[in-house]
Amino acid sequence: MADTETMECITEHERILQEIESTDTACVGPTLRSIYDDQPNAHKRFMEKLDARIRNHDREIEKMCNFHHQGFVDAITELLKVRADAEKLMGQVTDTNRRLQEAGKEVTAQTQEVIRCRMQQRNMTTTVEKLQLCLPVLEMYSKLREQLESKRYYAALKTMEQLENVYIPRVSKYRFCQIMAENLPRLREEIKEISMSDLKDFLESIRKHSDKVGETAMRQAQQHRTFNSAVTKQLNLGHYTKPVYSFNGRTHIHVPNGLLMNNDTGDEEEADEEVLTAQDLVDFSPVYRCLHIYTVLGDRETFENYYRKQRKKQARLVLQPHANMHETVEGYRRYFNQIVGFFVVEDHILHATTGLVTRAFTDELWNMALSKIIAVLRTHTSYCEDPDLVLELKNLIVIFADTVQGYGFPVNRLFDLLFEVRDQYNETLLKKWAVVFREIFESDNYSPIPVETEEEYKLVVSRFPFHDAEIEKQDFPKKLPMSQSVPQIYTQVKEFIYASLKFSESLHRSSTEIDDMLRKSTNLLLTRTLSSCLQNLIKKPHIGLTELVQIIINTTHLEQACKYLEEFITNITNVSPETVHTTRLYSLATFKDARHAAEGEIYTKLNQKIDEFIQLADYEWDMSESDGRASGYLMDLINFLRSTFQVFTHLPNNNNDHASMSGKVAQTACMSACKHLSTSLMQMLLDTELKQISMGAIQQFNLDVIQCELFASSEPVPGFQGDTLQLAFIDLRQLLDLFMVWDWSTYLADYGQPNSKYLRVNPATALALLEKMKDTSKKNNIFSQFRKNDRDKQKLIETVVKQLRSLVNSMSS
């Protein structure tokens, strides 16, 4: 056990010694501490081990020294020999230095003299150079004063720049140069103030000249557009074989004979007039001068900001509309001239300078101006009621748009605005044509057009596309079915299309779009204006049945003529009607609605006339027996209806469609009149204010109904099948038969049966009429209770009344 521990201890000491030998001395502490931390007396054993290790190293050192000792002795011996030679060499060097110093004393003295002379020469040269430097400074300063006196400010600034950067720095230590340097900033400020004053004068001047500049630019644009339009027409006709080209600022064209044709859109004097530009009308030198001055002064940004700010203010002033501008086209022209002049100047500044006005700045100004222009035009055009003024304004807007577009400004929103103005133009046209239509309708006699000669017939046919083989075969004189208003309306619709087409010119739109615009505006004229005028005409109280019948005839022919209006539009625009998305004319619905309104008015007026006759009825409801003949008012009413329905023979029947239409209108009117007459007679019997009715009155009323039935059976209007018209009086007939025959047993027994003889008699109606007769019998037969037949009849009436009341109650429950 003890041997084992001893071996471990020895091994540990070896490790510690190796660590001490291989480790830096500063890090030995922890290693030594571990020796004392081991077993007791371990350090003694370690010391013994350490001493043994030291002795081993000493023996190794001694062996190494013994091995190198002889070499060391030989090196020392050689070194002693070299020392003697070194001392000898040192003596020789010292002697050589002494002799050299003695030989150079004379040379050194001469060198000092040369240095002194050279310094004097250098001072003289420096003096001459300084004088040469000062003279140019004085000359440049004198030149500066002369430039300021002659108002050559840009050259003066360049001279100042040279003085500061080139000349004054060379002689800046002299006092006169310091005084010059101190004066230069003050001179610069004076130049800035003077140039800014010139710029303000320029801005004020350009504000006054903008109108003239804009007028010139717009006139040139108009001449150019007129010329291009003329050239295009000539090219389309094949008169020109070469394109337009320009040289020397003038426009020319090759014509077939090889000669040159000038762009002469006006008089010869105007053709020879020199084309003016903004630079010809405005002196821009103050802007250039001020820009250069501020650029040289390093304050260009301040100048640019000031210029742009002032121009923005002027733009807002220019965009303010004049008072009463909407009243004349000259007001709009002056407004556009100022705007064009403003932007022509800005465009010139943009291209003549670098950075003073940028494209972004001009675009910003234009966008602001465009929004304001559109708002102003929207407001002022809404006040305009004259289509000619709106058309002139449109042409002015187109010239304005072409002008500014030529300077690179986008004008799409202006052409979009023109579509809104076009709507306003169409509205003014519609109002104007509404007056025209009303005047035509008021002056019309609503009778067929008489034609005495073939020339008159051709004149009417040339104004209105009328073709009827049967009428053409007739001899003169003859009558055309429509009235005088039809060709007038047709002609005015064509005039409206021409007027609407005028606005579509120069809008840079395709033929298809123009065709679509024309058709839409024509549809508005037909469906709104003409339709409204027709509706108002039909509702007028002085329009009688004859006039209404003629209106139906007129609308029929106008509807047929609409296909010729479509051909008319097609010939104008050269757009085939088979083109996809081509708008059609909505004539069918317009004239169909007018005919329906006229037909309804016919029915209404017939019923009103019937009511007027009914109001003339004067029955003696307590008469004991009838007069034996129909009432006079009713005979007059029937005669009126007969004569009225003869008017319907004038309705157009030249083809199957018109024949069926005329028959339908006549049949509907006749049936409506008969039903209204039957209803009015029934209401007369059942009037709550009528308290008593005698049997004699029933008999008289029956005679009147018989006349109505005879009228219905006489076929006042052809086309009714069987007794269809007589069915209008079936309710009255069955009610009167029931009271005339006094067949209550049959009525009560068959009530509710589909084959009942009195199927159309309502129990409530029969009860109301029976009670009126019951009261009459009580009043007129005071002594009826003493006669057996009268007492039986009174009991029968009471019995029937009870049964009818029970039927009415059962129906209501």
TrEMBL record:
Keywords assigned: Exocytosis, Transport
Membrane spanning stretches = none
**Which residue range or ranges hold the Exocyst complex subunit EXOC6/Sec15 C-terminal domain?**
414-772
Residues in Exocyst complex component EXOC6/Sec15 N-terminal domain copies: 49-218
Q: Which GO terms describe its cellular component?
A: exocyst; plasma membrane
Supply one GO BP term.
Answer: vesicle tethering involved in exocytosis
- Pfam families from the entry? EXOC6_Sec15_N (PF20651), Sec15_C (PF04091)
Q: Quote the InterPro entries the UniProt record gives.
A: EXOC6/Sec15, EXOC6/Sec15_C, EXOC6/Sec15_C_dom1, EXOC6_Sec15_N, EXOC6PINT-1/Sec15/Tip20_C_dom2
Q: What does this protein do?
A: Component of the exocyst complex involved in the docking of exocytic vesicles with fusion sites on the plasma membrane.
Q: Which family does it belong to?
A: Belongs to the SEC15 family.
Name of the protein this chain belongs to: Exocyst complex component
